[in-house]
Amino acid sequence: MLYCEQLSFRYQTRQIIQHLTFHVNEGEFVSLIGPSGSGKSTLFYLIGGLYEPEEGTIYLEGERVNGKRGLIGYMPQTSSLFPWRTVEENIRLSQELEGQIDPKQIKQLLERIGLSSYANHFPHQLSGGMQQRVAFARTLASKKKLLCLDEPFGALDALTRSEMQRWLLSILEEEKRTVLFITHSVEEAILLSDRIYVLTPGPMKVKKEFHVPFPREHRWDQRGNKDFLELREEIEAMLLG
Ligand SMILES: Nc1ncnc2c1ncn2[C@@H]1O[C@H](COP(=O)(O)OP(=O)(O)OP(=O)(O)O)[C@@H](O)[C@H]1O
């Protein structure tokens, strides 16, 4: 689905990404973990075509997409809902931009995120978790196959975050999209992902790739298990260098 080959990028004279190579298979959930400020959001800007890499190639479904916009679903760290638009109007936005409004799908998405009765509410009338669900529904409404989610649960409290992780997986069971996910939480990455890339601090490149070996449906119950904790410790040690 996505193959980034030997990407390099700099802001002015500062090298942010250097020879970064990684891939995401169709239907996979892949997480990126790296130190704060290492360049993860910048990588999403490159994949989304906002910036062009200085060197290297980004392939989406086999096609070179350096600098091409509008091909991925993107959800930023904060929900970025438009405060003057209702929940339904916010979800509809990506379809409006694509010029193809599908009222039936919007209705289904509202049901799927459990917010049908909030369709005409405004963002400030919702909790943080509800706002993130609306932002995610807006990303899903765009029908893009690859979803790039930039630390979507970072601002939520622990309980809401845990609910949202389970909720995200249940939605993806039905929606079958491919996800590239940025998180600072090693536990969250293990709970959600098929594979995890640990990244180096600037300039950013892949330090190590981990496959998560546990069946997804049992992961929440296995959080205290020896194998789970060992993997978590190994990734944390890798992050600390
Ligand atoms: N437009 C810009 N011009 C110059 N430097 C920038 C610009 N945007 C970001 N940076 C710098 O590039 C580095 C990487 O930023 P980026 O936001 O990609 O990191 P990140 O890994 O996503 O951080 P975090 O995990 O804290 O969200 C940071 O040091 C940041 O200050």
From TrEMBL:
PROSITE patterns: ABC_TRANSPORTER_1 (PS00211), ABC_TRANSPORTER_2 (PS50893)
Membrane-traversing stretches: none
This protein's UniProt keywords: ATP-binding, Nucleotide-binding, Transport
InterPro entries in the cross-refs: AAA+_ATPase (IPR003593), ABC_transporter-like_ATP-bd (IPR003439), ABC_transporter-like_CS (IPR017871), ABC_transporter_ATP-bind (IPR050166), P-loop_NTPase (IPR027417)
Domain ABC transporter, residue spans: 2-226
Single Gene Ontology MF annotation: ATP hydrolysis activity
PANTHER family given in the database record: ABC TRANSPORTER ATP-BINDING PROTEIN, TAURINE IMPORT ATP-BINDING PROTEIN-RELATED
Record's protein name: ABC-type nitrate/sulfonate/bicarbonate transport system, ATPase component
Species the sequence originates in: Thermoflavimicrobium dichotomicum
